[in-house]
Amino acid sequence: MTNPNLLSVADLGADGIEEVLRVTDSFVEVSARAIPRVPALRGRTVVSLFYECSTRTRLSFETAARRLSADTMNFTITTSSTTKGESLRDTVETIDAMGIDAVVVRHSAAGVPWQIAGWTEASVINAGDGWHEHPTQALLDCYTIRRHRKTLEGLRIVVVGDVKHSRVARSGVLAFTALGAEVTLVAPRTLLPPSTEGWPVEVSHDLDAVLPKADVVYLLRLQNERMSEALIPTLREYTSGYGLTRRRAALLQDDALVMHPGPINRGVEVAAEVTDLPRSVITQQVANGVAVRMAVLYLLLAGGAASESGEPALA
After folding, report:
1. Is the entire prediction scored with pTM above 0.90?
2. What distance in Å separates the CA atoms of residue 171 and residue 184, rounded to the nearest whole number?
3. Which region among 40-44, 207-211, 274-278, 306-310 has the lowest average model confidence (pLDDT)?
4. Which terminus of the chain is less hemmed in, N or C, by CB atoms within 10 Å?
5. Is 39 domain-assigned?
């Protein structure tokens, strides 16, 4: 990774994605140790700047930074000067003045991480900007698939649900196709972007028709908080047409994987019993997220400290 920031999957390309996945292998081993901590980022400071609620991503980044022995600073909007009218720029410049090395940012507005990158010399990592992108989610998804299927080359990945509002879908399509997968979007027309021109995907409205050939089924949550109008008749009708029910799960190949970025609306986009099947790797996605984010932080902040073999120096 030559760019000091990670704002988009496009910053990486196929070679950069492969580098992150290779380094992640080392940090999976670290996470399995009795004391899962290495001194790779000792003396560095990582700030979590979250303007939206988050459980998995925020805790994952904080855990990753601490396992690398970095110091962490956590910004909470409800207890910050933002409630007094402080602007985003002033907040960033205030934090930057304290001496930081990386900012992990989530914001409801697309493009904010790019703005912040212009206000600080610290590395900026996009942890989700509006409907736009969520690059580290795509990286951990690629890693999870590859742990089970060895490669993404030629795999058929079906992304189901609220694609229109999903930054996960956008980053996922970029990453999956960069590594050679074939992606099909499945959703009602109201939950697709106005245009998919330029997206390297196929589009279908018939989930039952595509499931038998799928290697991975990636389910997306209905993002009601981003909807300004009624885009589906009822939740019952949505589940009837696009939910991964137990009946639909039986259509899948024996080695097909079921994935979800969370949080899950059980009984809506996926049946509760399907999430408990061996083919479901949803909790593995969460576990792999820590190691992937360790790899991203390491490559951005200590990339020059790798050993001659190209592996991280983890003593």
Report:
1. yes
2. 14
3. 306-310
4. C
5. yes
106 with 144, same domain: the answer is no
Query: 90 and 13, same structural domain?
Result: yes
Q: What is the pLDDT of residue 312?
A: 67
Contact yes or no for 208/240 (Cβ under 8 A): no
The DSSP symbol for 260 reads -
Residues 153 and 229 in one domain: yes
For residues 127 and 216, membership in a common domain is answered with no
- The proportion of the chain whose per-residue pLDDT surpasses 70, expressed as a percent, equals 91
Which residue range is the domain that position 211 belongs to? 135-282
Rounded to 5 degrees, φ, ψ at 258 are -115, 125
How far is 174 from 8, CA to CA, in rounded Å? 9
Claim to verify: residue 115 and residue 152 sit in the same structural domain: no
Which residue, 214, 207, 295, 298, is CA-closest to 247? 207
Q: Is 4 a member of any domain?
A: no
Asked whether residue 313 is domain-assigned, the answer is no
Query: Which one-letter DSSP state was computed for residue 280?
Result: B
Q: Which segments of 13-153 are extended strands (E)?
A: 45-50, 71-76, 102-107, 123-129
Full strand arrangement of the beta sheet holding 123-129: 71-76, 45-50, 102-107, 123-129
Q: Look at the alpha carbons of 183, 184, 187, 189 in this order and tell me if their dihedral is positive or negative.
A: positive
Predicted local confidence at residue 3, as pLDDT: 47
Show the tokens assigned to 37. Answer: 């901590």
